[in-house]
Design goal:
The protein is 60% helix and 0% strand. By secondary structure, it is an all-alpha fold. Helix 3 packs parallel to helix 5, helix 5 packs antiparallel against helix 6 and helix 6 packs antiparallel against helix 7.
């Protein structure tokens, strides 16, 4: 079953919506709502219109602008492509657009970051490379 299929089943269960935990960062029994795993899950719940029903997430912290800037691990590309398609099917064009932007940004960063990180081993360029890496990851590089 796909991730979207699993979430579609989960949202049918009030128990799951009360206790769903995906975050590896939070140790308080809920989700941090900031890491990429939380954000991907919140996007999936938002696509189905169920984010407000899941008590372990804080829906007020979900922002499409933040989703669009999310740096995704390359292993998540297929799942996010599936989620983007689902968002389009469920008539959530803003969500689909944010996911598309995140995918494009992540592809770019997977290409550029290894080059920038090589310069971090150079004593002369290490500080500059560190600042460039930080700005690329936070989306403040212009």
């Amino acid at each position: 079953m796909s991730r979207a299929g699993k979430v579609k089943e989960l949202i049918q269960s009030e128990v799951a919506m009360r206790y769903l935990r995906v975050c590896y960062r939070s140790d308080e029994g809920d989700n941090c709502c900031h890491c990429e795993k939380c954000y991907r899950t919140m996007a999936m719940l938002a696509a189905y219109g169920a984010l407000d029903r899941c008590t372990t997430f804080r829906p007020e912290e979900f922002r499409l602008e933040r989703l669009a800037q999310l740096f995704l691990p390359s292993r998540m590309t297929m799942g996010v492509l599936e989620l983007e398609s689902l968002a389009r099917q469920l008539d959530k064009p803003e969500l689909a657009r944010a996911l598309r932007h995140s995918l494009q940004r992540s592809r770019f960063l997977h290409t550029v970051l290894p080059v920038v990180r090589r310069f971090k081993h150079n004593r002369v360029l290490a500080a500059v490379a560190g600042r460039v890496e930080g700005r690329l990851l936070t989306g403040t590089f212009r």
